[in-house]
Write a structure and sequence with these properties.
It comes from Pedobacter cryoconitis. InterPro entries: 6-phosphogluconolactonase_DevB (IPR005900), 6PGL (IPR039104), Glc/Gal-6P_isomerase (IPR006148), NagB/RpiA_transferase-like (IPR037171). Keywords: Hydrolase. It is an enzyme of class 3 (hydrolase). The chain is α/β, with parallel strands linked by helices and 241 residues long. The protein has one domain (2-232): Rossmann fold (3-Layer(aba) Sandwich). 29% of the residues lie in helices and 20% in strands. It has helices spanning 9-31, 45-52, 82-91, 110-125, 179-182, 198-206, and strands spanning 2-6, 34-38, 64-68, 70-72, 101-102, 134-137, 162-167, 172-177, 187-192, 226-232. It has a seven-stranded parallel β-sheet with strand order 1-10-9-6-2-3-5. Strands 4-8-7 form a three-stranded antiparallel β-sheet. The chain is globular, with a radius of gyration of 17 Å. The chain starts with a strand and ends in a 9-residue tail after the last strand.
Amino acid sequence: MNLLIYKTKSELLNDMADYIIAIAEKAIAERDCFNFVLTGGNSPKELYQILSTTYREKLDWSKVYFFIGDERNVPPGHESYNGLMAKKSILDPLNIVADHIFFVDTTLAPEKAAIEYAKAISAHFDGADLAFDLILLGMGDDGHTASLFPGTTILGSNEVGVESVYVDKLSTYRISFTAPLINKAKNIAFLVFGEAKADALKHVIEGDPKTPEVYPSQLIDPIDGSLTWFLDSDAAQLLDN
């Protein structure tokens, strides 16, 4: 695990953009494609905008396939739909073609949406191991990541796949990658900034013993890949080391 701590959000985001481009270039050189899983919420929006503007000419974006790591059970046009944020901030600005984007079909019931999304991912990998080149993750101030929320049933899943999960605290369903699917990735990167995340981050990184049912981000531990935390000093302020 690598912890990278930055004094400013600007430094953090630009370094993370460089990190993404380096992994993408390596994947494209090796296999002529880059399988890239985006995270939702507001935290990555500025990162996506940097990639689609300042970094636009640094990569052959036509070789990139985009996925969404988790989705809210709202219509595709809803302002809270993670896919819509990604569409506006990176996919449309880069003119990514439709067959290189994998959205969750939330017009379906949550369980069916998860099943169909998993099928689409499996078809894309065409029998190859379901190991994404890079999965981006955020972390909530309750320690959740993707839609792996404290106390939810998906935390106990052993399936390498996508599942629907009911989140009591939000009174709604979500569709999410399971921890075993995330942990198969070649590279996983957390983007965490802000003082509000400091307490949860300390528990996630330094908690002993681990309590993933309380701080689900502790479940993220790649089998054979790298894990990097991109943090600002506000989020990292309570860490001992």
